[in-house]
From TrEMBL:
Residue ranges with Basic and acidic residues bias: 81-108
Source domain of life: Eukaryota
Protein name: Family with sequence similarity 107 member B
Organism encoding this protein: Rhinolophus ferrumequinum
Keyword annotations from UniProtKB, A to Z: Coiled coil
Length: 160
């Protein structure tokens, strides 16, 4: 809201003071007005104009209240609640429409990638189910499976 500008003192040079060509260093960019040097009563000295808005009591009270609310972390409530709800609904609706449009405008590559991803997920789920079934199976079923495998391996070895 408010901005402070730091001013450089006029006496401090911009560059190294050891330079011999001091006339090249700009000390003052603007010319000094005549009324500063002379105390001539005939000259009319400029005065700062009064801002009628800032001097008004209402403006000062409002400004003070805004500063206090800012310090407390309160934001002024300008909109009624119904208007806020309607704006939120409208924003949500626009976001939803954009998401739907993005889904509709998918390329063939994206569609194929999604299909492959779904197939891989299904295969992983099936593997997990098989592992769970094997872990939950009784001991004699596991032993029987091991005997079948060893029997098949022995038969293949004899054939070779």
């Amino acid at each position: 809201m408010f901005c402070r500008v730091m001013k450089r003192p006029r006496d401090i040079p911009l560059e190294d003071p050891d330079l011999k060509d001091t006339y090249l260093i700009p000390r003052n960019i603007m010319a000094e007005p005549d009324y500063i040097e002379d105390d001539n009563p005939e000259l009319i000295r400029p005065q700062k104009l009064v801002n009628p808005v800032k001097t008004s009591r209402n403006h000062q009270d409002l400004h003070r209240e805004l500063l206090m609310n800012q310090k407390r972390g309160l934001a002024p409530q300008n909109k009624p609640e119904l208007q806020k709800v309607m704006e939120k609904r409208k924003r949500d609706q626009v976001i939803k429409q954009k998401e739907e449009e993005a889904q509709k405008n998918k390329s063939d590559l994206e569609i194929e990638l999604l299909k492959r991803q779904q197939k891989l997920e299904q295969l992983e789920l099936e593997k997990q189910k098989l592992q769970e079934e094997q872990e939950n199976a009784p001991e004699f079923v596991k032993v029987k499976g091991n005997l079948r495998r060893t029997g098949q391996e022995v038969a293949q070895a004899q054939e070779s």
